[in-house]
Amino acid sequence: MRSCDWSGARWTVVRMNMNTNTITERITVLGLGAMGRALAGALLAAGHDVTVWNRTPGKADGLVARGARSAPSVAEAVEASPLTVVCLLNNASVHETLEPVVGKLAGRTLVNLTSGSAQQARELASLLGEHGVRSLAGGIMAVPPMVGTEGAVILYSGERDLFDQVAPVLSPLARPHWVGEDPGFAALYDRAALSGMYGISAGAIHAVKLIHAEGGDVETFKREVLAPWMELTLPLMVAGAVVSEEVPEEYNADMQAVGLETMLATSAAAGVPDELAGHLRASLWVMRRAAQAGQVA
Ligand code: FVH
């Protein structure tokens, strides 16, 4: 037997799970879409005592078969556990779901893993705080099949001491990584990291369209040229990403601007839709600004 302080105000009795040799915590999961089901499943697999709720009935069945309890209402779901994890579609659905029961959450802890903006996360944390709810905001850096596997990360922001209590309990979901006290930071870091990912994705899509448009072998290009090139350059691109126009001298911004103009011309001549070349225009903008700032050898 062990006690765990979730709320700072009340102590909750938890029990040792003899099968998994872990401490069993009572955890509620609101939202059983693809991600919510994966989260609840990972918590069950870790031996936790899981209560679930979903707006549309039926999605809990598989989890109930594995030992979860299905709550008939949001109010009963949040009352079942000192810790509630929320993973709904968007910020509007979070407010629609939580506002009617916010009084029931008083003295409890809530972790919102729904994607949203930094400002939305700050507003939710503030609303919850006004009602005596301690909360963390999270950004899931994984797709559902990755939940509970090595490599999956969840970014958290909010009070550090709360993170220190919650992180061990939610670590079966993904490696917990705290990014700051500002409740908006998990969303901010998550959105920014995805921006980097979509930039790579846009570049890869444009590259294969270009090869395809000129009759090249896309699969061979991907395997023999694109993948090794991206692997080699990715760390350099991340290291070279700077906030100001300080492109390192050896990058020769003037030369790169000329090269980017050639790429745009090649793309247009091959008939690749201009909408797919946005990453090249963004890079051209950066290189021109750097060249104008006179930071080129
Ligand atoms: N799936 C992924 O790859 C990404 C990975 C990174 C993080 N995201 C975010 O996780 C949130 C949930 O994503 P999801 O994949 O579970 O999404 P869905 O399968 O579409 O499930 C949506 C759930 O939200 C419920 N819901 C929608 N609107 C409402 C509402 N007004 N009131 C209450 N619940 C609502 C929906 O319920 P139902 O349609 O079954 O009744 C689902 O449970 C999301 O923020 C991703 O960006 C996932």
Describe the protein in words.
The chain is α/β, with parallel strands linked by helices and 297 residues long. The chain is 47% helix and 17% strand. The protein has helices spanning 34-45, 61-65, 74-79, 91-98, 118-130, 160-170, 185-213, 218-240, 253-269, 278-292, and strands spanning 2-5, 11-17, 22-24, 26-30, 49-53, 69-70, 83-86, 109-112, 134-141, 153-157, 175-178. It has an eight-stranded mixed β-sheet, with helices on both faces. Strands 1-2-3 form a three-stranded antiparallel β-sheet, with no helix packed on it. Helix 7 runs antiparallel to helix 8 (218-240) and helix 9 runs antiparallel to helix 10 (278-292). The longest helix has 29 residues, at 185-213. The chain is elongated, with a radius of gyration of 24 Å. It starts with a strand and ends in a 5-residue tail after the last helix. Bound molecules: ligand FVH. Residues 31-36, 54-56, 59, 87-90, 93, 96-97, 114-115, 140, 143-144 line the site of ligand FVH.
Give a brief outline of the structure:
This protein is of the alpha/beta class.
Secondary-structure class? alpha/beta
Q: What's the tally of helices?
A: 10
The pLDDT mean sits at: 91
Mind telling me the C-alpha Rg? 24 Å
The ligands found in this model are: ligand FVH
Strand content: 15-25%
Number of strands: 11
| SSE ordering | EEEEHEHEHEHEHEEHEHHHH
